Amino acid sequence: MRLAALILGIAAAGYLAVAALAWAFQAHLIYFPNPAAGEPPQGSPFTAVQVDTEDGETLAAWRAAARPGCPTLLLLHGNAGHVPSSGWLYEQLNRAGAGVLALSWRGYAGSTGTPSEAGLYADAEAGFMALIEDGTPAGEIVVHGFSLGSAPAVRLAADHDFNALILEAPFLSAEAVARESMPFLPVGWLLRDRYRTDEMIADVDMPILIVHGAADTIIPARHSERLAALARAPVTRILIDNAGHNTLAQNGMYETAVWPFLSDRFPDCRFAAEEVEV
To answer: 31-263: which CATH topology?
Structure first.
C-alpha cells in the first residue's frame, strides 16, 4: 500500500509539474515568432510600410496596390508566419491583380511588442484601418486569415463591414486544438489566449470562403466543417485533396478556390497575371 501510494504521489506530482509548465510557458506553445526583419527585394512591386496600433506598437508590413477593379487583400499570417519569407506568394497575388497588405504580427519580423490574443486582434484592426486611411474603400477589402490568423480575421469581420472573408485552415478555438494535441491536460483551465472563432463567426455578415486541406494533420478539416455550420452568413467551403496545413497555396488554393470565389464579387478583375507587351 505504501509503495502504491508513493507511486501515485510521484505520478500526481509529475502531472502537476507538467500542467504548471504548460501554464507558465503556453505562449511558447502558441506563438513561434521569427523576429528577423526583411525588406521587399529590389524591383518588387512591394514597399515596406509601418502600421501603428492603438496600444502603441509599430507593425512591419509589405504593401502593393491593386489593379483597377481588383480587391485588396489584408493578409493575416499564422503562428509561425514570416512576411519576408512569403514574398514569393505575395508577388503571385499581386501579379494576379490583387492589392496586398501583408501584416507582421507584433513580435514578428520587424514589429514591436509581444504576441497575445488581445494584441493580435488590435493588430488586425490596425491593418484594416491603415487600408481605410490610405483611401482603400471597405467594399474593395478582402480579409484573408491563415491558421492562427483566421481568428483575428473573424473578429475583424464581426466588427467591420468589408467585401468578403477568407479563412485558410481555420480552427474552432485554441482550446479545441489544445485538447486534441494534449488531451491529458485540463487545457480549459490553463489557457489564457482562447481564440473562440466558434463563438465569433455567427456575428459575421458577409460572404465567407473557407479553404482547408483534406490532409491537414495540424488543424483537421473537421474544424472548418463545424465553423461553416456555425456561420449565419453564406459560406463556401472547399477541401483541397492532398493539401496539408502549410501547402494549400502550392496545391492551387488561389486558382481553384479564391479567385473563383472573388470573381463574382469583382467582375472587372481578371485575376490573372498581366501580359507584358514586347
So the answer is: Rossmann fold (3.40.50)
